[in-house]
Design brief:
Low-confidence stretches: 1-12, 14-21
Helix content: 10-25%
CATH superfamily: Glutaredoxin
Mean pLDDT: 91
Number of domains: 1
Strand content: 35-45%
CATH class: Alpha Beta
Structural class: alpha+beta
Largest sheet: 4 strands, mixed
Number of helices: 4
CATH topology: Glutaredoxin
Radius of gyration: 17 Å
Strand order of the largest sheet: 2-1-3-4
CATH architecture: 3-Layer(aba) Sandwich
Order of helices and strands: HEHEHEEHEEEEEEE
Number of strands: 11
Shape: globular
Distance between the termini: 41 Å
Length: 233
């Protein structure tokens, strides 16, 4: 039953998306851990999401499962803090894995691929509030944000995230002991380029920390909604 359901979800997720959808991609953040026995199905969904132009998929490995006998090789305490901030913003009293956050707003527990697809479709249908352009030349990145139909009064963080498209782990202890797993779009660095008032066009520039792929996120300050995202190419 599990295999047939997973296969159906994967097939659905691989469907061709509308032309131009990549111009306003939906951001899916997965909070996961190599110490979590229920995480592999969600990790598998990330491989499918990583192949879609209309989605920016980011895997943030957390450290709070390390105590059970296996230290996650990709974990960063900053990822745990980000997940806690989402919980506070959403009025939730606990954090857990696996959890997916869609565009900084909606959360999904576990690996509910059908619910995830519904949320992606809903966010993809929303009109763009911001024009976002990101250009990359070697180790330098330039970003321009411009309001389209954005309410006044909020402030936003302009962020650059770099990730490894594929990483492998051989887990020797803990709940997943003996498993050899591949992980997609593992977040390696997260920088805030600056703040934006949302009222007028503004540009940013920065030196990237590595030659890994990079994406730009514009997010309401205080761990609010992600209102724009783009790949830096």
């Amino acid at each position: 039953m599990f295999r047939s359901t997973t296969a159906a979800i994967v097939a659905f997720m691989s469907l061709v998306v509308p032309a131009g959808a990549e111009d306003n991609p939906v951001v899916v953040e997965l909070f996961t851990s190599q110490g979590c026995s229920s995480c592999p199905p969600a990790d598998a969904l990330m491989h499918e999401l990583a192949g879609r132009d209309d989605v920016i998929a980011l895997a943030l490995h957390v450290d709070y499962w390390d105590y059970i006998g296996w230290k996650d090789l990709f974990a960063d305490p900053a990822h745990t803090l980000r997940q806690k901030a989402y919980a506070r913003e959403g009025g939730r009293t606990m954090i857990y894995t696996p959890q997916m956050i869609v565009n900084g707003q909606d959360d999904i527990a576990g690996a509910d691929g059908l619910a995830l697809m519904d949320l992606i479709d809903a966010h993809r249908s929303e009109a763009a509030e911001v024009s976002l352009r990101a250009d990359r030349a070697g180790g330098q990145i330039g970003v321009e944000v411009r309001p389209l139909d954005l309410p006044h009064g909020d402030s936003y963080d302009v962020q650059v995230v770099q990730y490894s498209p594929l990483r492998h782990a051989e887990i020797k202890r803990g709940e997943l002991a003996g498993r050899k797993l591949d992980y997609a779009n593992v977040v390696e660095s997260w920088q805030v380029l600056g703040q934006w008032n949302g009222a007028e066009a503004q540009t940013y520039s920065a030196t990237l920390k590595s030659d890994l792929p990079a994406v730009i996120l514009v997010q309401r300050a205080g761990q609010g909604p992600i209102i724009a995202a783009a790949r830096a190419e």
